[in-house]
């Protein structure tokens, strides 16, 4: 009641006839302080977005298109000890190094996560993530299902985990067939592995369908997830 009386004691010009600036200043006087021009909502924190899913769901295509439509995204370049292949570019496709150099990074705790894959090491450099997040970039990591499980243990709820799928199991198998990159034995292993990996969907924050011929819709869904995460009152704090 006391506040109502204090406010009512300050003369405020007519809303219908008063000058806008005059009315604004009168309202400031009434509330006893100037109105701030600072943003009402806090500045969103950069995100770490982990994208995973079975082989053949189009993770690379999604990430490539997402980077084209959102300049504030950095795709982390993985370090590897395997030899560079024809057409690959150091620092773009991978950071190529010797096994000794890679193990030195492991010893110095410079990798967020690493694994031995077919005799060669692959890992995610921490400093690259820190540097780009400090510049305000959102970070995208592409990992396999096993890698996503490892990152969940390391990052917990501080990262956004997205599971990418095809529209059906049948479509996923057809995509694997169409790649024509494996022998029939390897193809059977890929299919069996994909079936097992689909069971891990429940361990992710979001599931996004990348339907055949509808990449743009998939990208828009990813953008909606990013925007929704940035609009949360309690935002994720990246622990890297």
From TrEMBL:
The keyword Iron does not apply. NCBIfam families: guanyl_kin. It comes from Cynara cardunculus var. scolymus (Globe artichoke). This is guanylate kinase. One of its GO terms (cellular component) is cytosol. Its EC number is 2.7.4.8. The keyword Kinase applies. One of its GO terms (molecular function) is GMP kinase activity. Residues 46-227 form the Guanylate kinase-like domain. Keywords: ATP-binding, Kinase, Nucleotide-binding, Transferase. It is an enzyme of class 2 (transferase). It comes from the Eukaryota. One of its GO terms (biological process) is regulation of developmental growth. Belongs to the guanylate kinase family. CDD domains: GMPK. Pfam families: Guanylate_kin (PF00625).
């Amino acid at each position: 009641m006391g506040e109502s009386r204090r406010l009512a004691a300050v003369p405020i010009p007519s809303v219908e006839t008063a000058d806008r600036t005059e009315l604004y200043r009168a309202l400031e006087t009434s509330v006893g302080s100037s109105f701030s021009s600072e943003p009402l909502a806090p500045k969103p924190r950069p995100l770490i977005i982990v994208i995973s899913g079975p082989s053949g769901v189009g993770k690379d295509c999604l990430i490539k298109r997402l980077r084209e439509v959102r300049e504030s995204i950095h795709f982390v370049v993985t370090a590897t000890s395997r030899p560079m292949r024809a057409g690959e570019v150091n620092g773009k496709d991978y950071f190529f190094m010797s096994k000794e150099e890679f193990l030195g990074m492991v010893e110095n705790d410079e990798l967020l996560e690493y694994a031995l894959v077919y005799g060669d090491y692959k890992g995610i450099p921490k400093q690259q993530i820190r540097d780009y997040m400090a510049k305000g970039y959102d970070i995208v990591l592409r990992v396999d299902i096993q890698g996503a499980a490892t990152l969940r243990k390391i990052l917990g709820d501080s990262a956004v985990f997205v599971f990418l799928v095809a529209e059906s199991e049948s479509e996923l198998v057809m995509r694997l067939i169409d790649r024509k990159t494996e022998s029939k034995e390897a193809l059977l292993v890929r299919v069996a592995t994909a079936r097992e990996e689909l069971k891990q969907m429940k361990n992710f924050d979001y599931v996004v369908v990348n339907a055949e011929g509808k990449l743009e819709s998939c990208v828009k869904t990813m953008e909606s997830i990013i925007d929704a995460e940035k609009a949360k009152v309690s935002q994720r704090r990246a622990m890297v």
